[in-house]
Amino acid sequence: MDLRNKTISFNIGNKKIGGENPILIQSMSDIRTSNIEANIKLTNSLALYGLDMMRYSVLDLADAKALKIIKQNTKVPVIADIHFNAALAMECINSGVDKIRLNPGNMPIEKVKSIRDAMKAKGIALRIGVNSGSLGKYGRATLSNIDPFFFALDDMLEVFKEGSFENIVLSLKATDPRLTVKLYERASQLYPYPLHVGQTESGYGVEGAIRSSIAMVPLLSEGIGNTIRISLSDNRMEEIKACRTLLSGLGLRNDIPTLITCPTCGRTQCDVSNEARIIDDYLLKNVHDDIHVAVMGCPVNGPGEAKNADIGLAGGINSYLVFIGRSSSS
């Protein structure tokens, strides 16, 4: 059963989230938001490769004001990430952001009502984002006691529900993937809101992607999750690639191509790695379909694997056997 079908659905900027809509890919800028030109360049570059929404940290007034210009010069929804300071949230509302993320662990609840009313008047969506590292007064969550997350979440959620505010996304992220799974499974049973699924502080490179996958594969396979981020201490392009690979591999997006390559061995007679990089870059930017492309390096498994792809290359000496469907040419 696809639990995503049970969430409410609404617009965040030019994207639709929840219900039966496709799972959206998010990232977060690693550049100071007041560096407007660099953020516009980063966001537009990632959008070419499949970014659906971008989040920006807001540390001061300059950051909040910068979001207005960033929004005017980018094509994906702009999300403001606010901690501690309610006044900065109000300034981001004035800048016309599409969504605001608030953390109940560090945003005074008594300040939330005015933020809620201003957001509702402008049609700005909310994400209540609870993290294991900022539960504060709510206590420490463990595998045997996940209640502190929900105490924090419910405190803020109640304020927004009192104001009949409905355009809400929830996230509950922990550093332990097992805890993350338990949190989202409970949230999917308790609330009708779309869920942003991710693993906080997952790590760097391959290790970070694997840690994220430990949590996200079971959740997405259960139908839990409407938007995702694979958080990496890495080039932001790697986050987008990892998300695309995950969604494609689970059959959850029909607009993402799949590239299959062999690991190479002593039999390899062509430069599989280089060819794969070139093809991967082309597919990421230009192909919006769930086609399978295979690049294989030798005649042992090459022809068989290539034939199973929509387009396949089986390498030989300075040449490739090209398969399109079931036909081939060299």
Describe the secondary-structure layout.
Elements: E1 9-12, E2 15-18, E3 24-28, H1 36-48, E4 53-57, H2 61-72, E5 78-82, H3 86-94, E6 99-102, H4 112-122, E7 125-131, H5 147-162, E8 168-173, H6 177-190, E9 196-198, H7 205-221, E10 227-229, H8 236-249, E11 258-261, H9 272-286, E12 292-296, H10 302-307, E13 311-316, E14 319-324, E15 327-329
Parallel strand pairs: 3-4, 3-10, 4-5, 5-6, 6-7, 7-8, 9-10, 11-12, 12-13
Antiparallel strand pairs: 1-2, 13-14, 14-15
Helix pairs in contact: 1-2, 2-3, 3-4, 6-7, 7-8
Commentary on this structure:
By secondary structure, this protein is of the alpha/beta class. It has two domains: 3-249, Dihydropteroate synthase-like (TIM Barrel, Alpha-Beta Barrel); 258-329, 2-Layer Sandwich (Sulfite Reductase Hemoprotein, domain 1). It contains ten helices and 15 strands. It has helices spanning 36-48, 61-72, 86-94, 112-122, 147-162, 177-190, 205-221, 236-249, 272-286, 302-307, and strands spanning 9-12, 15-18, 24-28, 53-57, 78-82, 99-102, 125-131, 168-173, 196-198, 227-229, 258-261, 292-296, 311-316, 319-324, 327-329. The strands form three sheets. It has an eight-stranded parallel sheet. It is elongated. The model has no long low-confidence stretch (mean pLDDT 90).
Q: How far is the N terminus from the C terminus?
A: 45 Å
**What is the strand tally?**
15
CATH architecture of the largest domain: Alpha-Beta Barrel
What is the overall shape? elongated
Main sheet, how many strands, which sense, barrel? 8 strands, parallel
Overall average pLDDT: 90
Helix fraction bin: 25-40%
Helix and strand composition category: alpha/beta
Order of strands across the main sheet: 8-7-6-5-4-3-10-9
Indicate the CATH class of the largest domain. Alpha Beta
CATH topology type of the largest domain? TIM Barrel
Number of helices: 10
